[in-house]
Design goal:
Length: 255
């Protein structure tokens, strides 16, 4: 079997129905990057150095360690599956390593002025309140999508976050008045708090379209859901909030 054919088969059979949509998209991205840097050939003649050259190429092009690691993970697992299916005697990519000086991915939080501009833009666009929620709760994208009425305690001004990422992800967080006003303004269509215009629960795709609109309105190209989370943490640090408290609010296991 040819390398490209096997990578596509691995993606369809071993990834598509076993991981979240966002993870699947990351895998598809990694395969595209690998294909553009490794010549198609028979699996039997595939060499370790071809995979390492691909990772080194990504490093030279300025990709972050986390991005290079995604490609490495996909290549290693795809070849591991090939060995299991007896398409290969051993895994040529078992010993791939991330280049030592590959840059760490840095997420730059919004400045106070940028945040003011973003918040003003939120008032002008569909679902803008959702980005306000991200800015003032620090929750992850999927955690916001999973907000449920049963987890909302209006009297105590808190909500349970149904995090799935780590054991610390499930937590109770306080809600600022702006967040409570947004929640209380939502019509009760079902168990979830936030719904789209067609009556379906809000998805990651809706949130992505939202931040792309906010970029267009503000001209700030660095707006993402995760930047909102970093901005939330930064504002708390600037206000002198204890690092351990911030870590707990974010659902991190350590500061």
């Amino acid at each position: 079997m040819q390398l490209y054919e096997w990578l596509d088969e691995w993606l369809d059979i071993y990834a598509q129905n076993k991981v979240k949509t966002s993870t699947y998209q990351n895998y598809a991205w990694a395969i595209q990057k690998a294909k553009s840097r490794i010549d198609n050939c028979s699996l039997e003649i595939l060499l370790e150095m071809e995979g390492q050259k691909a990772l080194n190429s990504l490093d030279l092009e300025g990709f972050s360690k986390s991005s290079i690691d995604k490609v490495s993970i996909v290549l290693k697992d795809a070849m591991h599956r090939a060995v299991k299916k007896k398409l290969l005697a051993d895994n040529p990519f078992d010993v791939l390593f991330i280049p030592k000086y590959a840059p760490e991915k840095r997420i730059k939080p919004q400045t106070i002025e940028e945040q003011k501009n973003v918040e003003a833009a939120c008032k002008e666009t569909l679902h803008g309140d959702l980005y306000i929620m991200l800015l003032y709760t620090g929750v992850r994208r999927q955690e916001l999508c999973d907000f449920q009425w049963s987890d909302y305690d209006e009297q105590n001004e808190t909500i349970i976050v149904r995090g799935q990422k780590t054991k610390n992800s499930r937590r109770v967080i306080p809600l600022l008045p702006v967040c409570q006003r947004i929640i209380n303004s939502q019509p009760k269509f079902g168990e979830y708090i936030f719904y789209g215009i067609h009556g379906d629960p809000i998805t990651a795709s809706v949130l992505k379209k939202l931040y792309l609109r906010l970029r267009k309105i503000t001209g700030i190209e660095t707006i993402t859901n995760h930047v909102a989370r970093h901005t939330f943490a930064t504002r708390l640090l600037e206000a002198g909030v204890d690092e351990k408290a911030i870590s707990t609010l974010l659902g991190h296991s350590s500061t």
